[in-house]
Amino acid sequence: MSLTIGVDVGGTKVAAGVVDDQGRILEKLRRPTPSTNPELTAGVIAEVTNLLKAKYADVSAVGLGAAGFVDETRSVVLFAANLAWRDEPLKQKVEKLTGLPVVVENDANAMAWGEYRFGAGRGEEHVVCVTLGTGIGGGIIVDGRLYRGRHGIGAELGHVRVVPDGRRCGCGNRGCWEQYASGNALSHEARDLARVEPGRAARMMELSGGTVEITGLAVSQAAHEGDPAALECFDTVADWAGQGLADLTATLDPALFIIGGGLSAVADLFLDRMTKVYTESVTGRGHRGIAEIRIAELGADAGIVGAADLARQQ
Amino acid sequence: MSLTIGVDVGGTKVAAGVVDDQGRILEKLRRPTPSTNPELTAGVIAEVTNLLKAKYADVSAVGLGAAGFVDETRSVVLFAANLAWRDEPLKQKVEKLTGLPVVVENDANAMAWGEYRFGAGRGEEHVVCVTLGTGIGGGIIVDGRLYRGRHGIGAELGHVRVVPDGRRCGCGNRGCWEQYASGNALSHEARDLARVEPGRAARMMELSGGTVEITGLAVSQAAHEGDPAALECFDTVADWAGQGLADLTATLDPALFIIGGGLSAVADLFLDRMTKVYTESVTGRGHRGIAEIRIAELGADAGIVGAADLARQQ
Amino acid sequence: MSLTIGVDVGGTKVAAGVVDDQGRILEKLRRPTPSTNPELTAGVIAEVTNLLKAKYADVSAVGLGAAGFVDETRSVVLFAANLAWRDEPLKQKVEKLTGLPVVVENDANAMAWGEYRFGAGRGEEHVVCVTLGTGIGGGIIVDGRLYRGRHGIGAELGHVRVVPDGRRCGCGNRGCWEQYASGNALSHEARDLARVEPGRAARMMELSGGTVEITGLAVSQAAHEGDPAALECFDTVADWAGQGLADLTATLDPALFIIGGGLSAVADLFLDRMTKVYTESVTGRGHRGIAEIRIAELGADAGIVGAADLARQQ
Amino acid sequence: MSLTIGVDVGGTKVAAGVVDDQGRILEKLRRPTPSTNPELTAGVIAEVTNLLKAKYADVSAVGLGAAGFVDETRSVVLFAANLAWRDEPLKQKVEKLTGLPVVVENDANAMAWGEYRFGAGRGEEHVVCVTLGTGIGGGIIVDGRLYRGRHGIGAELGHVRVVPDGRRCGCGNRGCWEQYASGNALSHEARDLARVEPGRAARMMELSGGTVEITGLAVSQAAHEGDPAALECFDTVADWAGQGLADLTATLDPALFIIGGGLSAVADLFLDRMTKVYTESVTGRGHRGIAEIRIAELGADAGIVGAADLARQQ
Ligand SMILES: [Zn+2]
Ligand SMILES: [Zn+2]
Ligand SMILES: [Zn+2]
Ligand SMILES: [Zn+2]
């Protein structure tokens, strides 16, 4: 049986797993990311890989899902907002440290591939995966292949502008979708509410330790308790999310949207409304087929499973 | 030598041509579109096809580029804004009337394919073609194949929302890109200007027969004369066009944008500014490659050439 | 019995009347405005004044309501968008030509004063008059006196910005209230609709001679017939009008709004909705009194009556 | 010599002073506001008043400047956002507890009156005072009299809508001016920046104890040090402030704007830019006089001085 290792490299942790050809994870390891030092980060990736390789002799390749722009040769991380990578030759470094062939991929692309192959996307050939986490990541499957674009930087869906002169975004632009429809957008809504109507936001503030710095978790918990202000925050985010899916449909006309990321764990709080807004906003509605919307199935493992499978397919 | 016929079916005219495998048009025919009657429209398409077939014995297939939504089997026009088609089995009708195999394709897709194969897109594998005409059409080439989406309705780029609660669009939504960056958008700008500052818009009004219903042609001519108000209208459209290309880059990361449609004939009036805005707006700029922007080369023939070639490849 | 003459000087006509101290018009005269020539315009004003004076010996003064900025001494028209006046010493010229004392006032101020004294505003001391004509004019009564501001140019209510980067305005700015809530705004809405959904706008186009240059009259007539698209245009204008009244209430807290101008003749088509939006938008609603909204009573005569009464009070 | 007492009643403190007829404060007292209990608040006001009255036998009246809506009889606080007052008969209570005649006024009105009588507004008759504090308060002087509106709630300038569907406001509406041009708006800008570009906001975060909850003080200090991000936040607020003054000029055409409130202490950081934007945005600029802009002179004492003087004039 052929095995590969998938590694999900985020700003705070490195998570690795040995994965078989059915997408099953046999064993997982996790380490904090030494995010300010590229050399140490490559070292940690190699360390967990070598530990797993020592235990599973069949391991034949490594797939790395990295939070950043990855070049079109799938070798170099060009830029990462939350790590110190700038033109980092990650494939070369990790191959040298592990002796295994390495494929580097954007983390949201790896997640999308994992869901497409073994999760919510099985059986579809035109899939757009939207991960609603702190920001918004994206992955596009066209005719059963991962769409990477000319320079390897396709599907940066969170940075499509949806509001001219809108909210600032970490990418340096204003009005990006992820400022309106992500987990951060959810707490942004809640904090804006709390600053001007602290009475209405009382429960969310209480759940956030008494400050106006309301967390996404606090909004979710309050919403589950039925707090009207928290539900209103979710409604606003759902509206922006649904409109964004409609815009993606105008461009990509997929068969399926998969909604992943941290917010997908509380899909009960926004899925219905998002789907309704989507359905009512697609251009040409009534004269055309539209996409199905499903929640991701692999949870936090999607990146590991996807990266491992991409390494196998190399 | 193998020949195919390409037919471009628009709201006002049907243009057909015999095309060889190098994309050369051997002969062209043109008829007005009987746009309110689907039966007559199919009849006109068959008529020009049969005339050409009678003269060129080698013709082996017909490609139709139609202004509307085409289903994923490339047979049925689901809906057309400017023609009377609703679930029109165009392939079947024209095959019956001509005895030739028929492929139906969206007209902007056909144009994109023509440019990709024989025009500005030769040699590139990730191309997005944007036709700036009365509205905005789009065609996407991925890995050397025409991207059609799950239901055949991909690349409706003109109907991505760029302004919440923005200008009305013919698709029933508000704020669609084609309301800000097309030929119609150009005259919209000019008319808005003329209504409130007739003095500044005097030359454009003069060129439009003395009315505030300023045409795109009048704006172009005035701009070529150096009229400041006309140049201002072009600048506004260029800004929206460049921003839209930046947004498409976030999603699709193409190697190349091809700008076609009526506005491409006056590219000297907006290309530089559009390219500048594009370059300054792409997310991640400075850390990544961006797309080249070229003007279409085949002009009004792109649709015929592209449709004919798609029929050959079938 | 003391009589005065009021003259309403607009861009297309000069209308004069002899008015008694009860605001009754004894006789009226009307002439076209020679709008491109200040000298001729002063001449026409003097001509109608002298004709009336010859007939009514008791006339003691003249009030002129002029469409433009009038200086704080009520003597000079500083600027007029639709006439050729620039720093025009109108008081001096007309006094010389008629031998009567003259007071010059902004036309919307004169109308407001007419309504306050003899029309819809009788008995109130804090009145804001909003004239919804081609643009929006305003007049403010504070403690029973006409509010003129330091330079005589107060109550230019139509040029308060309500949309950042919004529609162009004839004043050179963007986003002014009169671009959203006037008679011109009404036809603007209708024309935008007609351009993208000609089918829905068919009745309004028919009533406008078959063009998309739909007139405000056509929208009104279609709306009275129940045409849904026309009613939608009125709803949009009503929403902007109501919000604007709410904003004026935050600043001025009047007892009464008087709605005049051409649109007030079809108040049945927007008054209820405008009032509802106003009531629901006033800051502090629920904890405070708000203004009453009434339709103007003097119609097109308000300017004559108001100007005449201002001349009497001098 | 006649003396009166002015009391400034805010959400956190009660500040009282004995004031002579030249606007000089002879002695001041300060207490924390028991803001959740109307009875105790009236008690504290009476306590400081009685202490001062015991020492200054000449005291003849009391003026209260209260942060809330005050009714047109200047007796009752209808509503206060930061205090527990709802239809609070403050005049009656304090008169009973002190034996002195009492006048109640909105706090921003009292400040405006103080500046008009003894501060930056001396000698002008058409003054608009804008206090840029946590929110925006306003006071209007017309013909040398305080403008109160029909219900006593005029000059709530902070709650004029400047952005449709804009930021939430504590008043329950969206897009109010005070969400864009106040001290809170300044920290709002800084926090939005810090969330997406923490690197650029590093100095402001450091000055705020290492959190993204950047205070207005931290922005000011960083700006004085030349921090580009802090200066950018001030520029944004200056632009909104200048545009708002231009809108007020369209309505009120004052001779003078007085800028007070906490932000006025750092006027060097925004006055030039605000004035430039104002000058370039006034409707009709070039054909009219515009207002002068001055910084308030009485600082935090303006409310005490103004309230005391209003009590004297009663
Ligand atoms: Zn972004
Ligand atoms: Zn559209
Ligand atoms: Zn204007
Ligand atoms: Zn507000």
From TrEMBL, chains A, B, C, D:
PROSITE patterns: ROK. One of its GO terms (biological process) is glycolytic process. GO terms for molecular function: ATP binding; glucokinase activity. The keyword Iron does not apply. Pfam families: ROK. Keywords: ATP-binding, Kinase, Nucleotide-binding, Transferase. InterPro entries: ATPase_NBD, ROK, ROK_cs, ROK_glcA. Its EC number is 2.7.1.2. CDD domains: ASKHA_NBD_ROK_SgGLK-like. Belongs to the ROK (NagC/XylR) family. This is Glucokinase. The lineage of its organism: Bacteria, Bacillati, Actinomycetota, Actinomycetes, Streptosporangiales.
